[in-house]
Amino acid sequence: MSRKPVKLQNQIICIFLLTFASILLVNLYIFSGMRDLIDNMDSAYDGNRKLTDMRGLLDSIQLELDDYINTKDESGLNKFYKDMAEYKIIVESLKHEGELTEQEMREKAIVNLSTRYVRSTNTAILSKRSGDVVRYQEDYAISVRDYEHLISYMADLNTKSFGENSGKYERIYEVMHQANIIYSVILALMGIFDILLLNLLLRRLMRPLQELARVANEVGEGNLDVAISEIHDYNEIGIVSSAFNNMITSLKEYIRQFKASVESESRLREKSIRMEASAKEAQLKYLQAQINPHFLFNTLNAGAQLAMLEEADRTYSYILRVADFFRYRIKNSEGISTISEELKIVDDYIYIINVRFAGEIHYNADVDEKLLQTAVPSMILQPIVENCIKHGLRDVEWEKKIDLSVYSEGDSTVISVRDNGVGIPDAVIERILNNKLNEDDSEKMQGGVGLDNVITRLRVFYDRENVIEITSVEKDMGTEIALYIPR
Amino acid sequence: MPQRSDQEKVHGRTSKKTDFHTIRSLVIIFILFMMIVSAFVFLRMQVANVSTDEQKYRYHYVFVGDTGDSRMLEIINDAAGEYGRKSGVYVEALDTGDESDSSYADRIDMAVAMGVNGIIVGAQEEKDIADAVERASVAEIPVVTVLSDCPDSLRKTFIEPDVYDVGRTYARSIIAVAGARKLNIAVLVESDDNDRFMAGLSDTLQNEGNHLDINIITEDITDMPNFRLMDLVAEMLTDEEMDIDMLLCPTEYTTQIVYQSVMDHDLAGSSQIIGYGINESLLRAVSNGEISALVYIDADQTGMECVDTLNGYIDSGVTRDHITVESIMITSGNIGRYLDE
Predict the structure, then answer these.
(1) Across the strands, what pairs with B143?
(2) Testing the interface with B: which of A102, A148, A205 to mutate, by most B Cβ within 10 A?
(3) Which residues of B12-49 are buried (b: 16+ CB within 10 A; e: fewer)?
(4) Which fold has domain B163-297?
């Protein structure tokens, strides 16, 4: 069962009040003790003062009695009665009954002596008034004796009391001296006591905060497998600690969910990429498959015509070239070839075309021998050359030329195919490069699909867009298609 | 998981360290608290000690005697006061010494006027005491006399040393301080009641000192003036025929005169002296080896008997007429206690 939270501010105030109250109490106690000692010192000689006062009054009474006895002066008697009344009041204050202390015993003795003295003086005065000389002399003598007893005892007592009180005063003085030292020690001890108490309580109060700081530091360094073990929910620190623990738990849950989400998304993206790659692969194979039957059909027609016309070595050579062409296709079913092989298929293709069109295509190749073994996707040059013949050179009246060159330019190997045909409009070039040839364009170009296929394959293969550049200055000024193969 | 485990270990060590620190602080705080409380209690006790004695008393007795001049009476008075304090009786001394003009009778009359519950009169043989005692008796205040009696008075009890026991104590003192087996001992006697003293002396020497060969000579010094006594002592101690080994003085007065004579004639050490009483000069003489031993009434017992006798009379109305108390021996072996007192 958790306690009701108490404000941190109130707890600190309570700690302060506790130490303050302890110091205050000790000081009050010390003050009270010192006051008692001072009172003791002040009252040490009270008894002597009282006895001295009584003695003075007693002497006055006796003198007044003497005066009256000797002179029978009634006027002095008033003063006698007045002093006697005052003396009786003092004596009355000294009366005690029952079990008594030493001082009370002495005071009781004084009361008894005083009572006898008062009685004897009254008797002496009455005797004096009666005029019986013998009797008043006897009574007066008794009063004098009682007076002497009284002052004798008082003097004796005063001396004795003075000695005792002096001893007491000295003892009080010694105790006061001791008290000064002891109180200083007590105050010093109390100071240490309060400092330790303050330290203990504040440490207890601050410990959860230190624990919170430690755990927060660890969390800040990325370690979420920590928690505040002891949570004292009796102040704001406890509340913050509890909230901090909840925050760590929430953070861990959030991170777990985030990780799961990222992993799931990653799997989906990977799957998507794979599917896309598969689609492109399928598309590539489809496109390659689309080329072969079309070309094969025309080639075989040409071969048939040649065989039909000559039935000789040229036919044989022609069919051989056709056979090489298809062999190359079968051989490069994996989709990767070299520039050298690509050039060979282009040669075969030109030969086949020239057989078909009576050698009207003038083909020239300028190749950097060092680049012949550069790996490239298969069937990228033949479609371009075919595209030159089909669209660039088919309807021209002048000598039909195709120049092919292979050279290095920067980080790339450049394969350039240039014809002197009709050229390609800029809009068509734009659509070719953006793979946006529509059905009409394809039908018009009759080989546009092949070029589009080559561009797509090159971009997929090298994973970059700028793999091809088509340059056609103006109509009838020919076209240059340059492939940029990264090294 | 290992990382978690390490953290738990570190946290555990920190927690243990914190607990240890807390326990240590609590122990120190507790010790400090106890020290502060102890200091307060100590101081409170000191203050209480200087406060007026708050003990309550049932009875108030006065001790009338020359306590200022007589060490013996002073010690008896102190013993009575100490015993009285324990039994709820306040014993107050009414001194009759040189500083007081009052006589014993005056002091007794004063005690009566004070309304005390009992009066102890120490060592006085004044004739007018009997009248004062009678006035006290009329006032129903019991009076006991100590050391010296007031015959033919209405005092309730006389407390004195047992003379036979005094003789026994002298004998034991002789046995204790004897320096040889064969001894010549002179006894200075001055009162009529010597038979019991001598009987106690002889009986004890025969019983407890039968290993000694003792020859006792008695010298009657009754009413002998001081100067004569001093001469006699000097003659005795220098008489080679008498060859006195030990001199016994049965009263304090005699002892004082003998000691003075010995010192005047430079005879200290020629013979052993066993005296009576415990005044300051005699005690110093014992301490210096000039007097071998002192016999002295047991003051503690005497003071106790005074208080008990008065208490008994007040409570029951009856008491014994005569009470004897024992004597004790003071030698160099136990002189320290009496010098301190």
Answers:
(1) B119
(2) A102
(3) eeeeeeeeeeeeebeeebeebeeebeebbeebeebbee
(4) Rossmann fold (3.40.50)
Average pLDDT of the segment spanning B63-77: 80
What is d(CA A411, CA A431) in angstroms, rounded to the nearest whole number? 27
Q: Is B5 on the interface with A (CB under 8 A)?
A: no
In tens, the pLDDT along A383-404 reads 888 888 888 888 888 888 999 9
Q: What are phi and psi of A438, to 5 degrees?
A: -90, 180
CB contact under 8 A, B47 and A199: no
Query: What is residue A425's DSSP assignment?
Result: -
Given a cut of 80, is residue B234 above it in pLDDT?
yes
Quote the tokens at residue A435.
């793979």
How many angstroms away from the CA of A84 is the closest CA of chain B? 19
CA geometry: angle B216, B165, B124, nearest 5 deg: 105
- Rounded (5°) CA angle A470-A472-A476: 145
Integer Cα distance of A337 and A330 in angstroms: 12
The CATH superfamily holding the domain B59-155 is Response regulator (3.40.50.2300)
Task: Measure Cα distances from B123 to A302, A345, B111, B147, B204 in Å.
Answer: 180, 166, 17, 5, 28
CATH code matching the domain that covers A271-486, chosen among 3.90.550.10, 3.90.930.12, 3.30.565.10, 2.40.50.140: 3.30.565.10
Name the burial class of residue A172, with classes exposed (0-12), middle (13-18) and buried (19+) by CB atoms within 10 angstroms of its CB: buried
Which residues in B lie closer than 8 A to residue A156 (C-beta atoms)? 94-95, 100
Model ipTM over 0.85: no
Please tell me the CATH code under which domain A8-212 is placed: 1.20.1420
